Amino acid sequence: MAEDGKEKLYKGKRMVYHTPLDEKTNRPAGYIVAGTPGEPSIVGGAMLNYQGLAGKIVKGAKEGYDFIELDLWNDAEILEPHLAERIKHLRATHKIDVGIHLRINLDLTSALGPIWDVNHKSLVTGVLGATEVVKANFILMHSAATPILEFGEAAARTAPSTLVTPWKDNLAAFIESPLCYDHQTRKRILENGLVPRLKWNVYSANKKNIVDKEKVEKYDVLLKPRCKEKEKEPTLKDWAISKFVKDIWFPGTIPQAEVMVAIKDVKTMREVFDCDTEAYLLFEKWFDKDEGKWRKIIEKILKNLEEDAKDSKNKIENLQRELQSPGKSEEEIKKINDSLSALIKEFESKRKKHEAFFIEYKLYFETIVSHEKQGYKPKDIFYNHFEDMIDLFNKSIGERVDDDKGKPADSKFPFMTKEKNRETCDNLKADLVILEDIKKKNYVKIKLFYDRYSVADNFSYWVQKGSEGEEQIAYRTIAKWMYVIKDPLYEKIVIGDKEVNKWWDENKEEVKKHKSELFGEFKGSDEQNRIDFLDPDNIISYTSLKGGVIDIPLRKMVAAISAKYIQGHLDRPMGTDKNLYLENSKPEEAYFKASMDRQLKNMRINPDGGNNPENMKCIYQYMYDEGVHFYIETQDVLQEEWRGKVRIMSLTDHIEIIKAFSDHYGFDNVSYTMDFEHLTSNLLNPRQQIEQLDKGDAKYLSMVHINPPSSVQGLHKILKKMSFDAEYIYGWLYKLKSLGMSGAYFVWEMGKDTGGGTYEAPLALRALAGELKKGTKPEDLPEEFFGIDANFRAMQEQAIKAHGLDPLRDMFFFKPADHTFIGQMARAANAEIADKERLR
Do residues 733 and 748 both lie within one domain? Predict the structure, then answer.
């Protein structure tokens, strides 16, 4: 809606010649009888004259359709010589318009770089073919052609490939700079319109990767202070490392694999680094070589013991020298010997005490101090002896510590007890509580693992090598990012979805039973608990806990991510195709240049500006400006095991995608094509899908592939007037009209069911369109709708007259005409013609 409350008028060019379109939406203004001529290889050699796009138009016009949907079976069909001239002539001759259905296996939902690239080129070729060659009313494509991915530890392994974002950027670079590729999110941040769902630092960004260079100054001013404020908050990179370090860098068996189990989520990842820092500060406080309080005390005690023993030894040596001096009386000698014996006993006691103290703290004196003398750095000492350090501290305050055999043993020399130093003892005990907790969580081991195996350097290497990995890594990353920044697609398809809400109401008690294995406290309101559960990490973890069953939340999450990848393709600047130009009698070189110039001029935001990406329209904008409407459709299953698992399937998901796209781009140029057969093949009931729509939402549904549902893949069963198919399909269309479908292309697609009777499909479509326009209720459909009219009655009466007496045939005195000489000759010549002539 415009700001003044009036609905916006469609402002793009109109590629239409004969089809009535709504001036506000560029959708059909009525119900258009349309068909697809099919694929030549399907209908046999006799129909090869109709191969190619121009031939398909001829065939469709002869079948009796008012509009032709041209199916591209491969991109090369667009490159047929002189195609534009032939199509222009045919459209003028037959007064017929056309649309293009891009190749059936085109899939814009892939996160694998090579596949993304191939399909994007197909999209560009199809769009250019529609605008430059065919002059099509619309482009139609399947929303997804591949099944839902498996996630988590138990997921089936898939071949790794380079991973990309929806906009084809390096996934790892995106993880490092999550705001650099999505214009809308960056705009929301710069305008203070984004409050992240989680307490994350979403303002972190690598300035050199920012797409809009003019935003750099604004970024410096607005975002850097926020980055500083949030520098201790988790980032997308922290989360990615916590989730994928094993998948990306250590897919096989790794040393110290137990540390990976401890990394549950990004919160733990952040705690690892924070606790590591905290533990090291305590290490320096008590264990630093120069300033450590504990070391000063133990060194002082050792020094005192050594000095006491040395003092006793000196006294013994003095007495021994005195004893050896001449002139001593026996009494003096006895007195000296007694003193000497006492001193020797005292010395032995002190020596043993010194030795026992040294042995008690041997780990410190022999190992740690020895390592320092060998040049070990303090950080190395900390990591190598973190747990030893805790044991030494416990011994010093009198706590029991396991001996060499693993049995608890009392401390023999607790030198930091309250009796000896109350304040220092209390401080050490308080710090030991922190250190013991860090030890229990294994955090220092984890950090040591990360440092030892250079995880940070490996991440940089991963960026440089194109983010190679399994596709589920990209999908999980984009899902988490969408959840955190409250992406409209995730909000509409997952957070605010009616099916998801219903599922939560039915399963929340079961979910809470597993809350210890999920992320979050689940102690808030029911609404907050629901939103917490819909964190992609929880959806995936719960799916794993339930044995990989694809529940509604997982299916909706995948649909939202897939839609984001489609949006990423549509966001990309429009490109040219040098293989695509219009041939005619003019010299090819000159016309090639003219064609390329025209392509470029239409693609530029400023027609006279340059061809830099900033001046090129995005694909969605280009289609809108050229008058080409964009349709998405549920894909038929390409493999039997994919039934019910295609990434985007349901009618409501597609409607939410359309609404989100319209909000994202600021104008409406996308609709849904409902294919009854495709929905059924994906195990979705068309009637139930329609009933889930809200009032008015069917206005986004302006094309219907009216093929009766079938269990045979690609059958595209013929629709006949006199059939139950026509009756129930009319009921579905009537319901759609009541929900807002005021106009639509009614398309019958030719498929495998071409064994005669294809001429009946357009007749059936006209009957559907005619009664729908009148507003006839399904229960009030007239006999004429089913083909029971005056002609039909006359033919039936004639047949009855001709064959009514057949049971008495052998009892006639005169034989019937077909047994006479003339009758037999006529039937022998052409029985079919003879029967038709009898009815004239």
Answer: yes
d(CA 35, CA 61): 9
Rounded to a whole number of angstroms, the distance between the first and last alpha carbons of the chain is: 60
Spatial neighbors of 585 by CB under 8 A, at least 6 apart, are none
Tokens of 726: 């026509």
Rounded Cα gap, residues 325 and 336, in angstroms: 12
Distances (CA, A) of 58 to 62, 102, 126, 705: 6, 19, 21, 20
Summarised one tens digit per residue, pLDDT across range 622-672 is 999 999 999 999 998 877 778 888 999 999 999 999 999 998 888 889 999
Indicate whether 479 and 527 sit together in one domain: no
* Residue 370 shares a structural domain with residue 420: yes
- The pLDDT of residue 132 is above 60: yes
Exposure string of 779-794, with b = 16+ CB inside 10 Å and e = fewer, is eebeeebbbeeeeeee
Which of 152-166, 211-225, 538-552, 747-761 reaches the highest mean pLDDT?
Answer: 538-552
Considering the domain architecture, whether residues 341 and 437 belong to the same structural domain is answered as yes
Say what the pLDDT of residue 251 is: 47
Residues 635 and 764 in one domain: yes
3-state secondary structure string across 22-75:
CCCCCCECCEEEEEECCCHHHHCHHHHHHCCHHHHHHHHHHHCCCEEEEECCCH
Q: Domain for residue 414, yes or no?
A: yes
Domain count of the chain? 5
Q: Which domain covers residue 805, as residue numbers?
A: 790-838
Q: Select from 502, 497, 494 the least CA-distant residue to 558.
A: 494
